[in-house]
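Reading a protein record of the kind used here takes only a little practice. These numbers are not coordinates but entries in a learned vocabulary of local backbone shapes. Here is one such record, which you should read through line by line.
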Amino acid sequence: MKRLFLCAMALVVAFGVSAHEPESNEVVVNGYADRIVIPNKFTLAITINESDSKGRMSLDEQERTMTKALKSAGFDTDEALCFKDNFSAYNRRGAYATRFYELVVFGAEDLASAFATLEPLNLHSVSLKSATCTDIDTIREELRREAIRDAKRNAEVLAEAIDQSIGRCTYIHDYNSNGDVVFNTNSSMKIRGIASINYDAIAEEAAPEPMEFAGSKISHTIQAKFELK
């Protein structure tokens, strides 16, 4: 009985060794890819306030002025401009209301145009709330493909150095998670007072220079194993 048990154990050990043996015929490499991503969708936060005009212009009038100016500049305010919230504040001179809006634009050229259109209105404040890239998922997929191709090239270089070649890929580990890409949104302006505006002059005005963004670097790393022949 003891002899049978020892034989069985020997077979188990031998099977275990043979099962792991292919690992000695593999090459393990990393692949890497990166890209600078430029934002193409921007959200502006706009605030209008009755106190800025000392009560001479109502919020409705300010809203109409802003909407008309944006339409004259070519923006579809029905789609791009959105009312977000309002509140009233009180001081010794009375009650003044405030309204908040968001304007969504696409591309650096339209962003510059939006700022140039809103600046002459002397609104309470206009600031860049967020910047995003609408193609980020597609870019991440491309980086994954580039990273695994880079891993394969690295494996081929190593195998060639020892007069061997690689076979099929037996293992892939994707290190990266799809976190948010953060862009710098420091561009802002804060103005006080209400001024009249010449809408025709805005429409005829030369197009403003597009705003430039440094972009944000995203990368992808993959570990892979290839058969070593």
User: Anything to note?
Assistant: The two ends are 43 Å apart (CA to CA).
